[in-house]
Amino acid sequence: MSRIAARFETLREQGRTALIPFVTAGDPAPEVTVPLMHAMVAAGADLIELGVPFSDPIADGPVIQRATERALALGVSLDDVLEMVRRFRLEDQATPVILMGYLNPIEVMGYTDFAHAAHAVGLDGALIVDVPPEEGHDLVAALKSQGLDLVYLLAPTSTAARISRIGAVATGFVYYVSVKGVTGSGQLDTAAVAEQVAIIKSLVSLPVGVGFGIGSPEAAAQVAKVADAVIVGSAIVRRIEAMAATPEHIPGAIATFLGSLRHAIDEVDAHVT
Ligand SMILES: O=P(O)(O)OC[C@@H](O)[C@@H](O)c1c[nH]c2ccccc12
């Protein structure tokens, strides 16, 4: 069983919803990321989504785009991100880590080399935004041969046929994008999310994570009622940006914010069976 599957299995047994923070690797400085990852775990993160900086992040809104630019300006590469995962793993063998990124840097490294390096550093999976399930067979084969999970996105516009097709290729969990548009945008419509998650759950046996537009304990609690995982990106990255001049404060402040999300989710879990 993969580390991601095992983590969701444990959470399911405990009746708990996962909290998945997203941060851009190397933002606002490369040396912040690993301590920040440990601080997020201590504050209740169940899995970490690490963004690989890329020059053309089509799915990202302004907040994460700026984080990407900060990291790219410091020269943070895919190799550097894998090195961060390796260093995180030296002290934490339990918390799954996935990379969020775009195909180009992986293509440049080479699919086989990436898959082997990812496995060697203790990465658990990847969400490659611009590789739809009907493409990238060589990449998928390379990653699966190294035991890495492949997370795919589902959108409000996904048809039942599309959901089933993604359910057949995805491993680990599926990621339901709660709003149309880019990261950090949109108004969360919790009733619509509940409806769509129920449809996904009837078609896909994997856990369902929900992300996009969740930025407060209240929103996290609403989503925790229906999803297996609550994914939060821009609200964290915005706080990191505000502290870019005092990076030593970042792990503690983000831990405090995540603690408030964790608490709100735990309250819901205690009441929902
Ligand atoms: O930023 P938001 O609205 O909290 O959404 C999560 C999101 O940031 C994170 O999962 C993510 C960052 N970049 C992405 C690109 C595609 C899908 C998901 C992502």
Describe the 3D structure.
The chain is 52% helix and 14% strand. It has twelve helices and nine strands. The chain has helices spanning 3-14, 30-42, 62-73, 78-91, 103-109, 111-121, 137-145, 160-169, 190-203, 217-224, 234-242, 250-271, and strands spanning 18-24, 48-51, 97-101, 125-128, 149-150, 152-154, 174-177, 208-211, 229-232. The chain has a nine-stranded parallel beta sheet. Helix 6 (111-121) packs parallel to helix 7. It binds indole-3-glycerol phosphate. Residues 22, 49, 51, 59-60, 64, 100, 129, 153, 183-184, 211-214, 231-235 line the site of indole-3-glycerol phosphate. Tetramer of two alpha and two beta chains.
**Which outline best applies?**
globular
Bound molecules: indole-3-glycerol phosphate
Uncertain runs: none
CATH class bucket: Alpha Beta
Share of helix, binned: 40-55%
Name the beta content range: 5-15%
- CATH homologous superfamily assignment: Aldolase class I
How are helices and strands ordered from N to C?
A: HEHEHHEHHEHEEHEHEHEHH
Instruction: Please state the structural category.
Output: alpha/beta
Mean pLDDT metric: 96
Number of domain units: 1
Rg, Cα atoms, Å: 17 Å
Query: How many DSSP E strands?
Result: 9
Strand order of the largest sheet: 5-4-3-2-1-9-8-7-6
Count every helix, treating DSSP H or I runs of 4 or more residues as helices: 12
Oligomeric status: single chain
Largest sheet: 9 strands, parallel
Secondary-structure arrangement, i.e. CATH architecture: Alpha-Beta Barrel
Write the CATH fold name: TIM Barrel
